[in-house]
Predict the 3D structure of the following.
Amino acid sequence: MRYIRLHENIKVPVWKNVKYALTLVWKADKRLLLSYIFSYLIDNIFQHYIQSILFLKVLLTVIDSGGNFNEYFRDLLLFFAIALFTKLTTWIAAYVRQVSTKNVLKVLNNMVFEKATMLDVGQYENPEFYDKYQRATLIMSAGYFDIVCYDFANAVSGILSLVLVIGTVTAIDPEYLLFLVPTMLVFIIEIAKSKAVYKRDLEMTGNNRTKAYIQRTVFLKDFAKDMRTSNIFSVMMKRFDAAIKANIQILKSYGVALFVYSMISTLFSEFIPIIGTYAYAGYQFVKKNTMTISGFSVVVSAIATVREATMVVAESVDEMAQMALYFQNLRDFFEQETSIKDGDKTAGRFETLEFKNVTFKYPSAKKNALENVSFKINRGETVAVVGVNGAGKSTLVKLILRFYDVTDGEILYNGINIKEYTVDSLRNSFATVFQDYKNFAVSVFENVMCRECNEEDKRKAQKALEQAGVWDKVKSLANGGDTVLTREFDQDGAGLSGGENQKVSTARLFASEYEIAILDEPSSALDPIAEYKMYENLISATKEKTVIYISHRLSSAVLSDRVFVLGNGSILESGTHKELMASGGQYSEMFRLQASGYNREEGEENV
């Protein structure tokens, strides 16, 4: 059984994947696999051979031959000593497994997390990626590494026990081996069953992801207010119920086949071997008188033991085959290639950034997000890219940072295509404040510096928070800058407002060493006064730096050297604020509309 064929063109290598799983465990912590093999080898041989066959045969032979009590007691003490050794070994191995399992999971989870962070950002917008990621993490959360080690140890020890027991049965009467032939068919049946179970679980992945998303959002603070002030909860519950009903239908569709597999497996593994053995042994003992009491007892016990050992091996091989299918998911995840490839150059001191006839379409989109965009930014310039929502502004950021690569055209950093630079050196040249900013459940200082902070880091973070205009709020918190954001993990944690959170996120820029700053909607959560103060601080902090403001609000445009107006993925206008206002185009109209909106707000506040 080298492969399991799932579909016409999909074959899963069983033993290759089992070897892959065991190799990962061995590299993470070899004690886990060794403890399983050592303990189950001793335990299975003791139960299936020493206790059920060898010791029984020795004692009954003593009785048949009229041996004395001293011999019987001596054998009993030997058996007790072996049993005690087996039990102690099992206890010690269980303790070792308890410790090593945690270490294996830690190492392997870190591998999954590291791989996830290396994949393209675009993958996170792909449902297929999330399915692969969920199936990869399921291997850890469901303890499949423990299972594959257990099954491997059980299979090895079961096979060795079978060899010993079958050798004993053959010495008594080789004809009894005929009753063991049906048990060999159990392997084939169990493999077919594991294939069906895997295909069933594979079909349920999408529904399980839907359920997990809804279960997660119900408990997240970000969604709590909307859940309680709208009818969205009922919509989510309908999706949740639909996912459950779909899973029930999938379970029903596989139910009959799995029941039939189980019945046939039971027939070949239990009824035929046991009934056949008892019937033939009884015939030899009663009718032919060719079987002694000890021989009869040993044969009956041996056949039952062979059945049990065979089932242990069959179930272990079956489960390993099933695990091989699941570990294929992990291999697929780890072997997934990124489309964003590293170049061999290091991005140095910034001089120019140029878009040359850039066109871009998202993988699942029907039309281009950008169409033939060209512009050039020089060192020391402050540039604003403005336009309505959906104009393609944030797409520019994603392309500059190589979250995606352009569909056509090229982006040049210092006159060289950005694909020729290493991704890390390119991204490290930019300090970026994203539109969908995120703060993490760590301290305020750590959120700003993005690392564990020493005293020098904290002083630097404090200055950055002052420049972002949020230090007065931060220092009022229970532990100042050491306060953890959110109370999810710390009862002394703090929840900040949307504007305060955005200022903390923006403080990262003030604390960074960078060649060029990109601010994508840096003031979306701020009121006009806070927005103006932030831009004042930004101008002061970014003197002699190159800055790109991306916004649908035009406060930044007034302060910029040049303005690009983006609409429907193309540059509609460009020039200084004064030039664009004088031209009376789309920028001028947008500016007047926003200015009148601010005037109305100011008038309402004065009423």
About this structure: The radius of gyration is 35 Å. The longest strand covers residues 352-360. The chain has three domains: 3-334, 340-429+517-607, 440-513.
